Amino acid sequence: MQILFCLIITAIVTTLSGCATTYIISCRDGDRLAIHDSLYFGTAKPNGIVTTEDWAGFLESTVTPRFPQGLTSSRASGQFRGADGEIVREDSHVLQLLHADDAPNEKAIREVMDTYKIQFHQESVLRIRSHTCASF
Q1: Range of the domain at 110
Q2: How many domains does the chain divide into?
Q3: Are 76 and 89 spatial neighbours (Cβ–Cβ below 8 Å)?
């Protein structure tokens, strides 16, 4: 009897803990549900840096065709721990994108990240993805 009771309690706790991570976003009138992606692109590369002209060309050829509805780009400085364990400090670009939560946009985000990593010999591109409400 005690084992059955423990199994039932374990099942309930497991079920409820799964629900704890589920959330619902409810947007106000005039707002729409969207994904807000913040992408962080480092500028240091093995043979120099990603120049302002390089970044402008990347936005024009890679990002804008995939997100013609708009974007925000800003300069930043930051640091991260590289794969070799060393702290890397460098200038970076932050790209803010607001888009629908769908497969084509997800594919486009991944293409932007992968293209930058290949084109500018980057170890990674940081992505922060969040659900939000937006209005224009």
Answers
A1: 31-134
A2: 1
A3: no
